[in-house]
Structure formats: C-alpha cells, structure tokens
Amino acid sequence: MLHLLYGTETGTTEELAEETGPLAEERGLDVVVMDLDDLTMEDFVDVRDALFLVSTAGDGDMPYTAEQFWLDISRAKTPPLPQLRYGVLALGDTSYSFFCAAGKKIDAQLEALGATRVLERQDCDVDYETQARAWLSTALDYFVEHPRTD
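Request: output the structure for the sequence above.
Response:
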C-alpha cells in the first residue's frame, strides 16, 4: 500500500496528491491519499511506503495540516521507522529565506528515524507543475519496480 500523504496551507499539495492517486492505481499500486492531519502516530508506524507532498507556509513554517505530524515525529519518544520507504516533494517559494523548509525538515527527520529515502527530495518553486509531476511519475515507477516482498 502506497500512502500519498500531504500537508497543505492553500490546497496545492492536496490537489497534487488527489491527481496522483489515480495515476498510482493505473500502474497497479494500491494507494491511500491522506492529509497528514488525519494520520495518527499509531497508524503511521505501520506505514511502509509513502510519498510526502508538503508545502511551506509563511517563512519556513509547516503548513497547518502538517503541524501535528511534525510535532509527533520530532518527539524524542518517536519510535524508529526502519520499515518506511519514502520520498518527499516539497513546494515553496524561492523569494522566502527558508525555501521548502517544511519538506526539508520532514525529509531530514524521517531519515534520522531510520526510514529509507528511495529518491532524492524534490524542491519546487512556485512554477512547480512540470517538475512535480515528473518527480511523482518517477516515484510511482520506483514503487512499481520495487514491490514489497516482506
């Protein structure tokens, strides 16, 4: 099961996740599209494959729908996540000092928790469409070509 998990302020990453769900299904992947706000830590520790689509709010802040998730994975008591394979698509605006900071923070914290990054994080500026869709296509191909065997 591939989880498309999004954190959004204005709805852009939600829209990308919703568009990507059917593309994943067309490739034969089972997929769940979910707002990070709706994901409990109890459920998250069981997630094995995930793509995070995260925008940055303000000057480097988490979008409001990813704030609780960020707090949860940043706590000292957060369990290791060696079972998780993931990728991060970060949206931001280069006119801000902390370009794509939310996605960068989530990516670094997941790595620190022992998760396996399956492709490099993609940082996208305001004209994100072409770059984001290409990255998402590559990410979906990875999960098709590397199915879970455990």
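The two ends are 12 Å apart (CA to CA).
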